[in-house]
Design goal:
Elements (H helix, E strand, L loop, with lengths): L1 H8 L9 H7 L10 H9 L5 H17 L7 H5 E8 L20 E6 L2 H9 L7 E2 L2 H8 L9 E3 L9 E5 L12 E7 L10 H9 L7 H10 L6
Antiparallel strand pairs: 1-2, 2-6, 3-4, 4-5, 5-6
Helix pairs in contact: 4-9
Length: about 230
């Protein structure tokens, strides 16, 4: 009976969010007739891996914060749906379930209303000041060395060592995705630090590898007054 009671009283993944996060997120869920609660639970749950599920939840919370969801920012208004949340492989497969923050941030896939309006909103972001289709991205595309062949938007950070939020519509010409479908991740190092140098930015860009950890992203968002936790 105690086991049954614990099962009944357990909060769903959606209910583990704050009221403000649930309010911001609910209209963005691809529900297909589901409730927002059920849609979110299906979006983030990794069957048999509670750590990955928790990592997905934390990553969505960080995304809501940095995309301005808690303030219904211009950027957030352009996002029509959050389609997928994909947990990144743990760096230590023996990592305790209680420490999902040590995992790399999950990647998130979204749809936006109109890519041009979305990219313009990112550029006007007063905190993150996104750089859209920068010369460095154009140069990499020109020599065939870019993993992101279409539109790119990278947040400005303070230091090269800060995690950098990056949007890319990598399947722009795929009819199943299109130009309004963006892949979202946090790079572990920044290619645009306000207190960095040109050389430092270049080193940050070349150091892109595994995604930034959830803990590092959350610490950065707190430091820049974007997260409340």
């Amino acid at each position: 009976m105690l086991y049954l009671s614990l099962r009944i009283s357990r909060l769903s993944e959606f209910e583990s969010l704050t009221a403000d996060e649930r309010k911001a997120l609910a209209p963005k869920l691809v529900a297909n007739g589901e409730t927002a609660k059920d849609a979110f639970d299906h979006l983030v749950t990794v069957i048999g891996d509670a750590t990955a599920t928790a990592a997905n939840i934390r990553s969505v919370q960080n995304f809501i914060a940095q995309a301005g969801g808690l303030k219904n920012s211009e950027t957030w208004q352009q996002i029509t749906s959050i389609v997928k949340v994909n947990a990144s492989p743990a760096r230590d497969i023996k990592e305790p379930v209680a420490e999902p923050e040590r995992r790399p941030s999950s990647t998130i896939e979204i749809r936006v209303n109109k890519k041009d309006k979305f990219l313009a909103a990112l550029q006007r972001d007063p905190i993150n000041k996104f750089r859209v289709n920068a010369l460095t991205d154009a140069g990499l595309k020109a020599i065939g060395a870019s993993g992101h062949p279409y539109d790119n938007a990278r947040a400005q950070t303070t230091y090269r060592s800060d995690p950098q939020l990056h949007y890319a519509n990598d399947k722009s010409e795929d009819k199943n995705f299109g130009p309004n479908y963006f892949f979202v991740h946090w790079d572990a190092c920044s290619s645009k630090g306000s207190k960095s140098t040109i050389v430092g930015d270049a080193r940050g860009g070349l150091a892109h590898g595994p995604s930034a950890t959830i803990a590092n992203v959350n610490e950065y968002l707190k430091r820049t007054h974007q997260a409340r936790r």
